[in-house]
Amino acid sequence: MVEAQTWTTRRGSNPRLESELVVDIPVTPTSEVRNYSSITGGLISPNVVTALIIASWYLSNIGVLLLNKYLLSFYGYRYPIFLTMLHMLSCSVYSFIAIHWLQLVPYQQILSRQQFFKIAALSAIFCFSVVCGNTSLRYIPVSFNQAIGATTPFFTAVFAFLITCKKESAEVYLALVPVVAGIVVASNSEPLFHLFGFLVCIGSTAGRALKSVVQGLLLTSEAEKIHSMNLLLYMAPMASLILLPLTLYIEGNVAAITVEKAREDHYIVFLLLGNATVAYLVNLTNFLVTKHTSALTLQVLGNAKAAVAAVVSVLIFRNPVTVMGMTGFGVTLLGVVLYSESKKRSRVAAR
Known about the structure:
With about 350 residues, the protein is an all-alpha fold. It is built from 13 helices and no strands. The protein has helices at about 35-40, 45-75, 80-100, 115-135, 140-150, 150-165, 170-190, 195-220, 230-250, 255-265, 265-290, 295-315, 325-350. The longest helix is centred in the first third of the chain and has 29 residues, at about 45-75.
């Protein structure tokens, strides 16, 4: 799964280009998190720690994309919903360990029934986005998947207008033109274009944008603000419960099929366990990058990650690319950068 998917910020200003699983809620105050020395014991400089965290963020985000593509397309494990459910179960277990045992962040309880239903609604949108993203990897290359994912700002602006009636400046809307135009060019030039894969990837991208807008509406009050790792602790089990009947209905007795495959080929056990672990690391490293740098740095890294993931996937899977396809992808990324800068200037002007 991974609706591998960074996300937008809670106000929709950070186009999520990286991982499908990343849950984006404002981080807790610095007084509630550990400093560099508590992690390294003072033996490693802060700059080295930050560089290692950023490298881990890149590796986990690109790694989960490549592993999903390999499992779903090349290895022949054609069960994207069950794979997404494994990711959610992994996030549930690792989140519990990180919060209750390692105490990386303070534990936060759900405060009310209303807040519970808000988180459940986010989980449903999250499931839709991640399942669509993983399903698309069965039919289209990672490079094309990332190009489509770069259009997140467009859908964020659309949903923000439809749901909250929020209007952006003309400069922001103009920046969205190359975002959409680039993906049109890339789609027309994609040698491995698949209509169903394209549509479900669009659905995944729209789902990520919708989640960011709804998340901003539901969980932005000071009384209900939840740390991203605590939010994942609650959302992952809910998402697993949502996905369980879906995978049984659509994919059949996939658990028995997986056990049978494991008896014939033990390699699939390591693939699935590794894939699920990396899916959680996407969330953990996303939090660590934001903690040790800033949301703006994560935004810049996310813009570059799509291009890096596309290049790496082409080198590994050898999928054909065209000059027009690469040009379209480049135009889309340029539009994303212009959009981010326009949003930043709009916020400054509004102060």
